[in-house]
Design goal:
Strands 1, 2, 3, 4, 5, 6, 7, 8 and 9 form a nine-stranded mixed sheet that branches. It is globular and about 55 Å long. The chain starts with a strand and ends in an 8-residue tail after the last helix. The chain is built from ten helices and nine strands.
């Protein structure tokens, strides 16, 4: 079976799958930002299970591409900030501290296509920082922004905390403060032509996402 999944749960799924495979549940994964997966599906690509933002799941269900009634809300995700391992941790406890940190940083990276990147671009505009950050910003099309921080190419990386944790050589300073953050809900559903057994696979994935496992991957359970 095949799963199209947002990058936001990549670390969590990679940790869970060895256990599920021991139980006889096998699946291949294709990870991309939700916007890119929606584009791929719009171009005709199909799989058995989709794990996307809740808005993406709703959109595909309304189009009849995903099966109504199979949606499962899996995790909540927040945007965070990371630096290269060993570097000083800037202050981001309040919106004003975050604003000062962004202005003081010599370089910063965020993504263009992911949910966190889209949010952060709007946040930068709202905080009136677009002009100040433009000369020192690296906006990647997709992928993990923390890779740039790990290589020393930027001082600060912004992305979902779970995506930051997917990269070695960095340290997550923390979530962006209240008033400068957003909660993304990542949900799953079955494609209309899903293979037999896809429902059982989705049920098992959902049950394996215990609060402990979810939090270790930088995410939060839906009830949080």
């Amino acid at each position: 079976m095949r799963i199209l999944s947002t990058l936001g749960v990549a670390v969590l799924l990679r940790r869970l799958m060895p256990v599920l495979e021991q139980e006889g549940l096998h699946a291949s994964f294709s990870f991309d930002p939700t916007a890119r997966i929606l584009q791929r599906i719009g171009e005709g690509e199909r799989a058995d299970v989709a794990i996307l933002t809740d808005a993406g799941i709703k959109e595909l269900t309304a189009k009849g591409i995903l099966v109504a009634g199979t949606r499962r809300d899996l995790v909540h995700s927040f945007v965070g900030l990371a630096v290269r391992k060993g570097e000083a941790h800037p202050r981001i406890g309040t919106v004003e501290e975050l604003r000062a940190t962004l202005l003081a940083a010599p370089s910063i990276a965020w993504s263009r296509a992911g949910a966190s990147g889209i949010f952060f671009s709007l946040l930068v505009e709202r905080l009136g920082l677009a002009e100040a950050l433009a000369p020192k910003a690296t906006i990647i099309p997709a992928g993990f922004t923390a890779e740039l921080a790990a290589r020393g190419e930027v001082a600060i990386a912004i992305q979902q905390v779970s995506e930051l944790l997917a990269v070695d050589g960095i340290e997550v300073v923390g979530k962006l403060p209240e008033g400068a953050n957003t909660c993304a809900v990542f949900s799953a559903a079955l494609f209309t032509d899903a293979a037999p057994g896809a429902a059982a696979l989705l049920d098992r994935i959902a049950s394996a996402m215990t609060p402990e496992a979810v939090r270790k991957a930088g995410l939060e359970p839906p009830s949080s």
